[in-house]
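Re: the request from the purification team.
They wanted to know what the chain is likely to look like in 3D before they choose a buffer screen. I agreed to run a prediction and write the result into the notebook, where they can find it.
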Amino acid sequence: MKTQDDILKLIEEKRQKYIDASLDIWDYAEPIFEEFKSSKRLAKILEEEGFKIIFGVAELPTAFIAEWGKGEPIIGYMGEYDALPGISQAANTTERKPIKKDGYGHGCGHHILGTAAMAAAIANKDYLELNNMEGTVRFYGCPAEEGGGGKVLMNNAGAFDDCAAAISWHPTDDNGIWSINFHAQQKVEYTFKGRKPYVKESSDSNILTDYGANSLDALQLFIMGAQILRTHLDPCFIVRSSILKTGDEKIDELPTESKIIYSYRAHTNKQIQKAMELLHNVAKGAAVMTDCELIAEYKTGYSEMLSNRSLERIMHEKFEKVGTVPMTEQDWNYAEKMHTALLLKDGEQATFDLMRLLYEEQAEPIIEQVKGKPYNNLLYPFREINVHKPGSTDICDVSWTTPTTQCVVACYAKDTLGHSWQEVAQGRSDICMKGMLVASKVMALTGIELFENPKALRAVRNEFETKRPGKVYIPLNSKKIVENEMR
């Protein structure tokens, strides 16, 4: 009879297999929805370990489900493997050194995120098999977290409907449970299509002149209206925009196509939906006033998190058991070296400001323990955090279908910013690999607890079923709207 302590050994026995896979995926560094090598790299290992593989989930070629076992409960592990544009970077360097100009890089740690979740699923499978236990272990290969909303699309396709609980993690520069909320978010790209002036002959031979439609005028009117609308939004809103095309590249010609992308972040899905309706009316009005065609292309949006404290507490208990990354002198020297590459004046300040926001009165004792260190090896205390952390993630949408939890593990030097070349540079380090294995152990133990302890699983499900009723979940799906079509 294997015990939960044996889970840690089961993972260590296959550690090199997992390290090799993560390093390969770091090398692949593939864009969203194009993670063909990365997804197949993980799927091949899972298939070798006895999992049944189904590709093309939600009609996404790089989304897959790997499943082993039979019966209930079904416990899921979620992995990611997409990279970020524009931050290609050589490993272990303290200066900006792209491998490929404007290339992709793993600046959010997804090369280890997916691999660790896979390792947890395999360890869970091994444990059930060795103990002759029933239940189903499922790994979700989730593409395009960075802006594509892979999990949203998989969730909408019903991939999580029968899952009893979903487990994940994220590489960061600290250790704990993400017992926090995230912002709901929606992006929309507006295109204003105008037309050139022309003359045409009518049936009664009268000459009519069409003075055209100026798309740049429409864009300018929209920006003015959007700015006024912003003053009517809740203060929690974070608004971002970028003009993609002004249309007046040829100064002597009337602009016939202008583009802008707008992003709204707020506390709740409901707030986003209402604000997006108002923003669309602004865009529609600008199009009508200038006689332009409007095309609104909504990108996949993210909802807020439906937190499950019962599941988060189980995960924290397992993290206490596993411990943080075991640092050697060589690791500390590496962290010190890479910390100098951050080039941030008062770099700790941002770290501590966020800590004070999330941990409030608990923050100062934590700060005293990590202040001045190049690496954070402290496990934060569990706290039910109700404030919204800046940022959005598609894992939140899964939490509306099944209880969901995620931990964070310090895989990078303290104060390393996500989505940075400095994070890419540290992505092949021993610290990063050790952090990946710590995460896999925490996740695996969390899953095993749900298999072995029906009472704990019931508590998790009861909390979910208590919170879920009365809350309306309408996914912020992708869609395309055409208004005032061209004559």
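For the purification team: The chain has two domains: 5-183+303-452, 185-301+476-483.
Please add any questions underneath this entry.
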